[in-house]
């Protein structure tokens, strides 16, 4: 395996001095003469300790899904578990629309119907940082030429030509969005991540996130005004999912989207967000931007140490509201779940234990429960399609094995077919999703450890409020995968949803 020079992986290097540049070029020249041998395949990981983990989904919920499938219920039947019915939500919303229409007109940025529509005067376009730009910024201090960067990416197994092509596609689509806005006499500011701040948000009437779901999360993170719309445009549909963005066709025909906004051919969608309070001892409310930390190539555990100030790290007796809102999810856990502790045993040998996240949890002001797990995920309806879904979903193989066990007890009469297994799997997984406008959270305990000391009475479920008291050693609370707060022993987090924090987005009529 080829190792990069030390200054490439340490984040140092003198900030662009001549010695790192000369050393890097010499190393690149030598690597061209002697190409590295292909890396050897990694050794397979050791099998997990199955007796400690309880990550297998509940047998009873799968059995309920199987019973519903066997009973031949139609699509209108409610799925088992914490499912949300969009039809029920829309009907309840429409029944109260007449009584609240005047109130919506006062609280919305503009009426969603009528000749006026929504016509912003000033728009901020937040453009994502492409992988090509990221690699350029990552090694900018070394003053690499394009050829040097190409060779370096090749040694890392990346395709320089492919990255440059995707960069050009993104840039072309961003220019299309900006030109479309300016053609409508709208004042536009095009900014990148580092230029996007609270002052920029206050200046704008609306925010356009030009990138993918990650850019949408970045754009939403600094918008605390619920009357300021945030609109997502997927600038690279072939490589980005874009769940939070407008349909792909508006990437290439953004003027059509603007005309629908002008004519009022849309509805406001209020995506609920999570707010966080911190209190207790050892609190450090100074956040770490994980994107900037990644650019510096600094270890995450060192990032919090380097950003720590004694004035901020103190005891907070009253809950301190953090200046961020989570659109997708909040994750709490040890920074390095694979960190190994060595314990000595007499007479003279040592054994290792992987560090689990140790905390106490209270759901909806209920009793506190001590837990150890691989971490805790708390999501909104928007985030129920993201990490939370992948934590809790089950595969066809697991369903088939459970139904086979059930059949051995003579509880299933029909033959076990692939169609039945697929139907049960889909029904269970769909029950994990709910509307982004629902003011509730869904928490998931990742791989809880259950023994006579630690328990997990509920591995997942809906909640209005979740409180966590940290007993961790080197833990973080990460908001939407981009902002991290230190969360160690003595810190207490209160996590809840306030409807005043809802993010204003649009759904265009098709």
From TrEMBL:
The keyword Nucleotide-binding applies. Residues 1-56, 74-119 are annotated as: Disordered. Keywords: Acetylation, ATP-binding, Kinase, Mitochondrion, NAD, NADP, Nucleotide-binding, Phosphoprotein, Transferase, Transit peptide. InterPro entries: ATP-NAD_kinase_N (IPR017438), ATP-NAD_kinase_PpnK-typ_C (IPR017437), NAD/diacylglycerol_kinase_sf (IPR016064), NADK (IPR002504). This is NAD kinase 2, mitochondrial. Homodimer. Residues 9-18 have a biased composition (Gly residues). One of its GO terms (molecular function) is ATP binding. It comes from Phrynocephalus forsythii. It holds the Pfam family NAD_kinase. It catalyses: NAD(+) + ATP = ADP + NADP(+) + H(+). Belongs to the NAD kinase family. Residues 74-111 have a biased composition (Low complexity). Residues 36-47 have a biased composition (Pro residues). It comes from the Eukaryota. The keyword Acetylation applies. Its main location: mitochondrion. It is found in: Mitochondrion. GO terms for cellular component: mitochondrial matrix. Its EC number is 2.7.1.23. The lineage of its organism: Eukaryota, Metazoa, Chordata, Craniata, Vertebrata.
